[in-house]
Write a structure and sequence with these properties.
The chain is α/β, with parallel strands linked by helices. About 35% of the residues lie in helices and about 20% in strands. The protein is built from eleven helices and 16 strands. The strands form three sheets. A seven-stranded mixed beta sheet has the order 3-2-1-4-8-6-9, with helices on both faces. The protein has a six-stranded mixed beta sheet with strand order 13-14-12-11-15-16, sandwiched between helices. A three-stranded mixed beta sheet has the order 5-10-7. Helix 1 packs parallel to helix 2, helix 7 packs parallel to helix 9 and helix 9 packs across helix 10.
Length: about 350
């Protein structure tokens, strides 16, 4: 650990928060920010064309606390709102908050302390806890368990091609570091996953944390449930874009494992990009067939390839364990020789 004796003993933290029609949750959200044990913050909160009374509600808070700075988005969408909030911010440290969530009262203080204990090129993150009045499905509970396990060790980027490995409303970094990776200038969606890949590209390090700092609300009209670009199948475009840019070794043969929905989508994208690959699976009904003009081979065809890289699109946990053991027997390493995409 590289300890830093920073001249900033009490840095200003800018909290960037877009909102749209979250009137029902904004009071809890803003109240949790006001109750923070760390008090040197500013809230840049941007109305993204709400049609309910959200704006008026936030305005009443802003009149009572001059740390709350309210704006109206000029370009519809979360990226435009984040760009506006960041442009208006003054903090040495930058963090995000979702307008329907709740902060633990020590969230800002913990993230600041963790960040100040290290040099730049680090990202402070915290554990998250999902909650819902409607009850949580297995998917969100599994995601919470998975991402928290990564955060406890700080090895979040080791599984970056599976899903977004940094919780979008529970990170903090130096302003200069955020600018260095492009901040919110990218128009790629989902914006949080795209930013995570850019942090990975810059080789930033995630700081481990063992405290639940953020309470993540789930409900039926939440944007991650209703907007098309947050659907898992659409993540593949982003994953493959960054894989081909950052981890693909053009001198090595590439294999795609799996011919289910995600495997087919991955194959189609690679074909569109003119990337040669071998397609392998363990489904006897598909082995030997051609799909999209690509021949499907049995999985043991991998042994015939010289020093291959593999994209794994199989989602079944038992099948993934089998792949890991198979790769281990071949002395292949994760995030170098093979990459799990689900």
């Amino acid at each position: 650990m590289n300890l830093v004796h920073s001249p900033m003993q009490n840095p200003l933290v800018s909290i960037l928060t877009p909102f749209k029609n979250t009137e029902s949750f904004l009071t809890e959200c803003i109240s949790s920010i006001i109750r923070q044990s760390y008090t040197n913050w500013e809230l840049l909160i941007v109305d993204d064309f709400s049609t309910d009374n959200s704006y008026q509600l936030v305005e009443s808070f802003a009149k009572q606390d001059n740390r709350i700075k309210l704006f109206k988005n000029t370009e519809a969408g979360i990226i435009g709102a984040l760009q506006l909030a960041f442009k208006q911010s003054n903090g040495d440290f930058i963090t995000r908050m979702d307008s329907d969530d709740i902060m633990h009262h020590r969230k800002i203080k913990t993230l600041v302390n963790n960040l100040m204990s290290h040099e730049k090129h680090h990202v402070a993150i915290g554990l998250v806890k999902y909650f819902s009045e409607e009850g949580l499905g297995d998917g969100y509970q599994n995601y919470e368990t998975w991402i928290n396990a990564l955060t406890k060790t700080g090895n979040n980027f080791s599984e970056i091609y599976k899903e977004c490995v940094i919780p979008s409303p529970c990170w903090m970094m130096h302003r200069d570091d955020l600018i260095a990776c492009g901040a919110f200038n990218s128009t790629s969606l989902p914006e949080d996953y795209d930013l995570t890949f850019r942090l990975y590209e810059q080789r930033y390090q995630c700081l481990p944390c063992h405290e639940v700092l953020h309470y993540w609300r789930d409900y039926s009209t939440r944007s991650s449930r209703t907007q098309e670009h947050y659907a898992q199948i659409h993540f593949l475009d982003l994953k493959l874009h960054y894989f081909l840019k950052l981890d693909y070794d053009i001198s090595r043969p590439l294999a795609v494992w799996g011919a289910g929905t995600k495997g087919k989508k991955a194959a189609k994208i690679l074909i569109e990009h003119g990337v040669d690959f071998y397609w392998i699976c363990n489904n006897p009904k598909k082995i030997g067939r051609d799909i999209y003009g690509q021949h499907l081979y049995p999985f043991n065809h991998l042994k015939t390839l010289k020093n291959p890289q593999s994209i794994i699109t199989v989602a079944n946990k038992e099948a993934q364990d089998y792949v890991r053991n198979y790769m281990k027997d071949l002395n292949m390493k994760p995030m170098t020789d093979y990459f799990f995409f689900c």
